[in-house]
Amino acid sequence: MATTQQKAVAPKKQSQGFNGVRNAFWIIIVCFIIAVCFYKFFLGAPGHFVDGDNTKEVLDSNIWGTIYKGGVVVPVIHTLLLTVIALSIERLLALRTAFGKGSLTKFVQNIKAALNAQDFAKAQQLCNQQKGSVANVVQASLNAYKDMETAAGLKKGQKVAKIQQAHEEATQLEMPTLTMNLPIIATIVTLGTLTGLLGTVTGMIRSFSALASGGGADSAALSTGISEALINTAFGIATSWVAVISYNYFTNKIDKLTFALDEVGYSIAQTYEANHTDEA
Question: Shortest CA distance to 76 belongs to which of 189, 156, 191, 164?
Fold first, then answer.
């Protein structure tokens, strides 16, 4: 009997579509390969340098050649930037699936209206139409509601607690899908700036070392070296900027979804409490 009830309470997945990339390591590897190829074959192309030699000076202050002169840190920063962009697209597609097919606000309103009318068939139909994480959790709560109507030996407060527990368990099952890969984006927020600064410092060291070994202070060479070094800072800050926007956007979307889950779960529990009398 207990096994039957557990199966009934377990949420029936309604999500259909892209649910996210569970192993982001391969995304990072692909981004690294793209960044290295871009650095070597495009930025380091002969047309950007004097005499077609990328070991010599940049041709006519060519921007691509200047970026190339930023050194080996450049492809690392580009890898971070590409990773943020790729994971942002991945999270956008995954959250679109999690939110379901229709408006989340309208879905919550319709579910609450169906509960107030005690039309559970309508609520079931709405879940089947909406799909996504919210629909999965509501489905689990509705299943628990139905089970508690036939459950014997429990007081009303215990039944309400069971419904709330089923709701919370279903929510916890959905949360890993919602927050997956966000820690990587959060890490790149700081890592992007730090990597840019590392490239700048190493570039400045290289520039001053070259001047020292030349035995003189060539202002043109020094300004060129500083320009090349600061390229890394610019890309590092840009990477962190994109990462901050991406992370805050998706955390805000997840907060909105979890608020909707809490609102519907509370409504289901309160509906049961209002429509049933306590049992001795």
Answer: 191
Identify the three-state secondary structure at position 60. helix
SS3 content of the chain, % helix, strand, coil (to 5): 80, 0, 20
| Of the candidates 104, 120, 101, the residue with the CA atom closest to the CA atom of residue 15 | 101
- Tens digits of pLDDT across the chain (280 residues): 344 444 444 444 554 567 778 889 999 999 999 999 999 999 999 998 888 888 888 888 788 988 998 888 999 999 999 999 999 999 999 888 888 888 888 888 888 888 888 788 888 888 888 888 888 888 888 888 888 877 777 788 888 888 888 888 888 888 888 899 999 999 999 999 999 999 888 888 877 776 776 655 566 667 667 777 888 999 999 999 999 999 999 999 999 888 888 888 888 888 888 777 765 4
The reply to whether the predicted model has a pTM over 0.70 is yes
Residues 211 and 222 sit within 8 Å (Cβ to Cβ): yes
Instruction: Give SS3 for 136.
Output: helix
The Cα 36–Cα 42 span in angstroms is 10
Write the CB contacts of 156 (distance below 8 Å, at least 6 apart in sequence): 272, 273, 276, 277, 278, 279
Q: Which residue has the tokens 């527990």?
A: 165
Q: In the chain, what is the greatest distance between 2 CA atoms, to the nearest angstrom?
A: 97
Task: Show the tokens assigned to 204.
Answer: 């400045």
